[in-house]
Each structure stands twice: as structure tokens, then as C-alpha cells.
Amino acid sequence: MGVRFKGWGIGLPDRIVTNEELSQTLDTSDEWIAERTGIRERRVGGSAVSLGVIAGRNAIQDAGLLVGDIDFLVLATTTPDRLCPASAPMIANELGLNCASMDVNAACSGFMYAVRTAQGLLETGNRRILVIGSENLSRWVDWSDRNMAVLLGDGAGAAVLEYDETGTDVLSFVLGSDGSAADLLTCEHGGYFQMDGKEVFRRAVRVVVDSAEQAMKIADVSPDDINLVIPHQANVRIIKAATQRLGIPMERTVVTLDRYGNTSSSSIPLAFFDARQNGRIKSGEYALMTGFGAGMTWASAVVRWSR
Ligand code: COA
């Protein structure tokens, strides 16, 4: 039995905030941000619900399905519109879905955790699951704090996963978490995101490399077999360091953080969508999807596209 990725969609706010614009109010520069992170601009606006609705609707349409075909909605978000209720039921309501729905919070690994959750739900009788990553990180950014303000952005991405008893796109999955590192990247109630950037960087490279190597081993593929890496988009230097250690050239890696910054749970589906639009997703080819984030959490999967 298996899981097929059937349709994809994204939702982005219209408002673009460039590094130049941030430099007008913060002690920073386009040069510093671009060189140290790879980010040039980010989108700002919307909410986890409003952006998630757009991405979800687009994914259902892309899959050629109707809302009635969806059995379950799993929303990955670190920034739900409210602490309670969860944002997933509100998205489901606006989309006209008549099914179970819930939020998953695994920070920037959220989309991967949601896909893994959906895989389990497909094994227990559901047929089609809408998985959305949607974030409104800008709401929890102190815009006078250059450490965080230059990094984060808003956006949403979604996929429809379908049960298939004849085969699977998902060949392996490795997930992990380490709460002893919880204080490295936090957002307290009523507060703003704060981070020990250097330590997060160091650990991020390590967990991406370790989990990706395990995922490739389980899938019985080598770095040479991986046609495309779809990594979480936090910092291009993290992506370069990890792919270099994995022995996969940067030309085979998707980078979208220059346009969107770090969008947490949304970054992997946004990157996937970009890759597909650029003709980089090809039937029969292998991809490594890998994410890490606050918690710390991490997740890597090897997939082989069937469509
Ligand atoms: N603009 C301009 N200068 C800045 C700056 C900014 N936004 N932020 C820091 N600086 C300065 C520092 O004050 C320091 O100055 P100094 O040398 O005079 O002391 C200098 O730039 C270097 O700072 P440092 O913190 O060493 O930079 P860095 O190369 O480690 O980059 C991060 C900082 C945050 C970009 C980097 O550590 C990072 O990306 N970490 C991982 C973050 C991440 O991925 N988080 C999300 C996980 S999902």
C-alpha cells in the first residue's frame, strides 16, 4: 500500500518586503542579509487561515478533485490564527470540506510531519488527505529586532495525498526531535520569535545530514541517485553546508528563500511548487525532502514521483 502526491498549490501574500526596505528601519543592509542568508525579499501579510485556504483550494483543483473527495485535513502551522480553536477547522469550513481536520505543530519540520501523519491516516481507511503548511510568522516578529526580522516571511503550500494500493511515492521517512534544544528558538505567549542563530545553524546541518543519510539508506538510494533536494528554506548557507556533506551538488537543490525568506512549515511545499513550475519534477525521478526547525525537530524523506 502507498501514498501518491496528487496535486499541489500555494498561497502567498501580495506584499513584498525587500531587504532594502528593512534597511530603512533596521541597522542592516541588503548586502549583509543576502550574503549571510541568501534572502533578498519576503512576503508579508494574510494569516495561517487565509493563506492556507488559497493553497488548499489550489491543491484540490490541481489534483482534479472536488472538496467532497477530501477525507481529512492536516494543517502544519507554528502560527495558528488563535491558540484555540485550531486553524484547520476554520480552513476546512472556508473550503467547504466536510471532514476531520487538525493542526500539527513541528515548527519548520511541520509540513514533513504532516505528510507523515497523513501517511498513517491513509493506512487507516482515509483515501485522500489535504496537507497544508501555512504560516503568518510576521505577526510574531519584533520588527525592531534585526536578528529575526530579516529571516522570516509568510506563505502557504499544500498537497493532496492519495491512497494507492499498487505502489508508493514515499520510499522512506526519518523523523526526530530533541526537546533539550527547545530554548534555541522560541516564541513565548504574547512574545516574539527569538533565536540563538549560530547554535541553530550548527545543529541544523547535523540533523539534516544525519536524517537524510538514514532516509537514503532506508530507500536504498545513493546521493548520486537523488535528482532533486527540496530542503527547508532557512539559510542558503545551511543548505550548501548540508548538501556538500551529503555529496549532492547545489545544482540539484531547490532554493526559493531568496524570494520568500524562511516560511517555516510552508517552505518545503513552496519549494516543491517552484521546482514543478520550472520543470524540475519528473516522473520516475528521486527527490530528497528534508526539514528542521524549532523543538528541535527534523524530518527527511526520499520520494519517487509517479506523476
Ligand atoms: N544585519 C546586519 N548585521 C547583523 C545582523 C543583521 N540582520 N545580524 C547580526 N549582524 C552582525 C552581528 O552583530 C555580528 O557583528 P559583529 O561581528 O560586529 O559582532 C555579525 O553580523 C555576524 O553575526 P553572526 O551572528 O555571527 O552572523 P551569522 O553569520 O551567524 O549569521 C544568522 C546569523 C542568524 C543569519 C545565522 O546564524 C543563521 O542563519 N542561523 C540559523 C538560523 C535559522 O536557520 N533559523 C531557523 C531555523 S528553522
Unreliable residue stretches: none
The CATH architecture of the largest domain comes to: 3-Layer(aba) Sandwich
CATH topology of the largest domain: Peroxisomal Thiolase, Chain A, domain 1
- The best one-word shape is globular
Number of domains: 2
Q: Determine the N-to-C terminus distance.
A: 17 Å
Task: Tell me what the structure shows.
The chain contains ten helices and 13 strands. It is an alpha/beta fold and 307 residues long. It folds into two domains: 2-164, Peroxisomal Thiolase, Chain A, domain 1 (3-Layer(aba) Sandwich), CATH 3.40.47; 170-304, Thiolase/Chalcone synthase (Peroxisomal Thiolase, Chain A, domain 1), CATH 3.40.47. Strands 1-7-6-4-5 form a five-stranded mixed sheet, sandwiched between helices. A four-stranded mixed sheet has the order 8-13-12-11. A two-stranded antiparallel sheet has the order 2-3. A hairpin with a 5-residue loop joins strand 9 and strand 10. The longest helix is centred in the C-terminal third of the chain and has 23 residues, at 197-219. It is globular and about 55 Å long. It starts with a strand and ends with a strand. The structure holds coenzyme A.
